[in-house]
Structure formats: C-alpha cells, structure tokens
C-alpha cells in the first residue's frame, strides 16, 4: 500500500530532519513506527500523508509513484489517506463545530450530499453525542476533540490511515476507545495503518509489525529503521 524509499526531508535542505529512510506498509497491514521525540518520525508521516514534499527519495502509494504533494497531488491520492495528528487543537479550525469539522473533507471534495449520512454513522462510532457535535473545539475536552478528528480522518473512507501520536495526549480509556474504532474500521474496510508513536507497549499490541527508529548518535546523522517484531 505504501512504500517510502530513501526519503530525505525536512525544513532546511542543508540540515534535513529525515535522511535516506525507507519504510513499507503492506495492503491491510498495521505497522507501528516507534521512535523518540524529535527523531523525525512525524516529518516522515507527513511525507506519507502527502502533506510534505521530500527533498529526495521516492514514494509509492497503492502501486502509483507519487509525483506531487499537497494541492499538487491528484484528488484520488489525497483522499486515499486519512490522518490523525497528536494535537487536535492545532489541526482543528476553532470556528467550526465538531459536526462541521467531521464534514469538512466531504464538503471540500464536493460530496455535500453525503454529509448527513456519514456524520450520523461516524459520530456514535467515535463516541460523540448530538449535543457534543454542536459544540466548537473550545467547548470540548482534548479527548472529545480527538474523537472528532478521528471521525474526520475516516469520513472519506481512506485506504491508508496514518495516526501520528494520536493517543499521546489522551487517558487510557480514551486511547483504548479510539484504537478500537480504528481496528473496527480496518476490519470492515481492509485499510492499512501506519501508527507513529513512542509507546512501545501500545504499538506492539496494536500493530501487526513494529519498526524502530534508531538514531546512530546524538547528531543528525543518517537514521536507520530496524525491525522490532514481526
């Protein structure tokens, strides 16, 4: 489903965050990417989500070589990937209600007719009541907002879901609930998963396979990814 080959990426070409990293996720497979904060795993996740163009390397999504990122990527590629970020308040428009937040991808892709049905399907799945759907982000907890962000990531029925530290700010019960939602969706759709995090126990229990980001030293030298378990 996803192949990243010798990816180099960052925000300064002279000092990239990610250097020549390769990773693959098979169709329907759940892969955990384990690494410490600041190692570059979130940058790699943004490349995989078509949100950040790499400086070098190649990416293949569902058998097609990626030529463009962000708005330059074809719609069918952008909508094939759903993303949930670590900090929901930085990824949610504070002006929108949770209902509008979930519906946002449908509206932006011209699928307004699907809004009532999909929101009605997803809200109970992620644990949001009708009353919560009418609230804006400032009026809900981090956990409730992350539930809405997960629903937003699923609303277009992606074939690949990327969870970048999705549960890092959540308590144990909310973490378990959201992981269960992801796994139910995967079981029903056959979607693949790339789960990024630093909680080894969670990733190894959640995913089919976990890979570890090994920093060779404390400087920004080329990083290698090594297998943890199969």
Automatic annotation (TrEMBL):
GO terms for biological process: transmembrane transport. The keyword ATP-binding applies. Residues 2-228 form the ABC transporter domain. It comes from the Bacteria. This is Oligopeptide/dipeptide ABC transporter. The keyword Cytoplasm does not apply. Belongs to the ABC transporter superfamily. SUPFAM superfamilies: P-loop containing nucleoside triphosphate hydrolases (SSF52540). It holds the Pfam family ABC_tran. Keywords: ATP-binding, Nucleotide-binding, Transport. GO terms for molecular function: ATP binding; ATP hydrolysis activity. It comes from Streptomyces filamentosus NRRL 15998.
């Amino acid at each position: 489903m996803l192949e990243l080959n010798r990816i180099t990426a960052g925000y300064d070409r002279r000092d990239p965050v990610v250097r020549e990293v390769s990773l693959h996720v098979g169709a329907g497979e759940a892969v955990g990417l384990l690494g410490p904060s600041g190692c570059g795993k979130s940058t790699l996740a943004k490349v995989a989500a078509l949100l950040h163009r790499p400086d070098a390397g190649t990416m293949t999504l569902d058998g097609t070589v990626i030529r463009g990122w962000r708005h330059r990527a074809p719609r069918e590629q952008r909508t094939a990937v759903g993303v949930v970020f670590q900090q929901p308040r930085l990824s949610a428009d504070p002006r929108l209600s949770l209902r509008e937040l979930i519906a946002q991808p449908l509206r932006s892709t011209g699928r307004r007719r699907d809004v009532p049905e999909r929101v009605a399907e997803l809200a109970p799945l992620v644990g949001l009541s009708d009353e919560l759907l009418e609230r804006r982000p400032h009026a809900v907890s981090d956990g409730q907002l992350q539930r809405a962000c997960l629903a937003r990531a699923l609303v277009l029925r992606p074939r690949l879901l990327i969870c970048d530290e999705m549960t890092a700010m959540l308590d144990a019960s909310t973490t378990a609930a959201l992981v269960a939602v992801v796994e139910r969706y995967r079981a029903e759709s056959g979607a693949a998963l790339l789960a990024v995090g630093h909680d080894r126990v969670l990733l190894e229990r959640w995913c089919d396979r976990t890979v570890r980001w090994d920093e060779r030293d404390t400087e920004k030298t080329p990083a290698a990814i090594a297998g943890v378990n199969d």
